[in-house]
Recover the amino acids of this structure.
């Protein structure tokens, strides 16, 4: 496990030499932030779309019942 | 014109529909500029080298996590006292956002702490308060989900939110009461700036960008909650 992390970190440090020896920490922190925010945004938008579809369907049903 | 008219769901939906697009666009643009500037165009800090660049995500995330809890407490208090349904719905809508920003603050703090303090985690007063506040977020969401009747769920989770507000306060001020490992606030109205000049502008921009994103998310989630409430009412009418 440690070997995998170490290899990934070496690759990241090679890809971002501008951040020096802490490239792995910096890119890791930003990557985690991006992933958490992406999950939050997608879940929020999907939940909203589902709620809107359900409400539209229910309102359509009510309109039909009321003639 | 009274602010309470926005507690009317129809009025809230009308106003927020106009606000959403500028918030999404503004948040995305400002964040891209702030994080690009912070990551690639600032010098390494004197004591922390490049790891200091984690503050561009850690500080805004921690601020939003704490302030979201304060917002939820205020909204819950208003909901409990004035019985405005939108207040409870705003508090409910804010909880997952606050929890997500708490995770970001805790994880980026740990990633910063490892090379700087030599440890991923320390039972420091500020860190521990933040962790407990995160558990209160989870408890609040779990309580909403566990109670079927919305009015009862709103009241009980509102009370739970008010109980946990002490940990939001401690997450902000604990390092001033008990100075241990975590440093004081990076930006403070009372004690001035503690951030290097080169970091200040991108940090401010990052905070603005994250707040715009937060407002956009909060508005969308509040609109979702209002739609779910309306759907429930229609289902009950039809039954």
């Amino acid at each position: 496990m440690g070997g995998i992390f170490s290899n990934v970190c070496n690759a990241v440090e090679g890809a971002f030499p501008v951040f020096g020896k802490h490239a792995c920490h910096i890119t890791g922190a930003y990557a985690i932030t991006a992933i958490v925010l992406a999950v939050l945004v997608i879940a929020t938008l999907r939940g909203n779309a589902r709620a809107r579809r359900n409400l539209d369907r229910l309102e359509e049903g009510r309109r039909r019942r009321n003639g | 014109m009274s602010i309470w008219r926005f507690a009317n769901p129809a009025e809230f939906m009308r106003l927020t529909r106009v606000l959403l697009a500028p918030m999404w666009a503004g948040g995305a643009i400002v964040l891209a500029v702030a994080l690009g500037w912070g990551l690639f165009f600032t010098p390494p800090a004197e004591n922390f080298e490049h790891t200091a660049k984690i503050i561009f995500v850690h500080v805004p995330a921690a601020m939003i996590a704490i302030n979201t809890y304060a917002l939820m407490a205020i909204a819950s208090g208003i909901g409990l006292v004035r019985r405005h349904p939108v207040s409870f719905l705003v508090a409910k809508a804010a909880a997952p956002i606050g929890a997500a920003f708490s995770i970001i603050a805790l994880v980026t703090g740990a990633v910063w702490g490892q090379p700087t303090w030599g440890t991923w985690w320390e039972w420091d007063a500020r860190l521990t308060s933040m962790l407990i506040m995160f558990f209160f977020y989870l408890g609040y969401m779990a309580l909403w989900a566990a109670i079927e009747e919305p009015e009862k769920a709103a009241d009980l989770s509102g009370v739970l939110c008010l109980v946990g507000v002490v940990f939001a306060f401690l997450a902000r001020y604990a390092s001033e009461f008990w100075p241990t490992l975590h440093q004081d606030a990076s930006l403070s109205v009372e004690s001035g700036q503690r951030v290097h000049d080169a970091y200040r502008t991108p940090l401010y921009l990052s905070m603005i960008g994250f707040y715009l994103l937060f407002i956009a998310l909060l508005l969308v989630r509040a609109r979702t909650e209002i739609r779910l409430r309306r759907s429930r009412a229609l289902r009950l009418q039809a039954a």
Remarks:
- The longest helix of chain B spans residues 197-238.
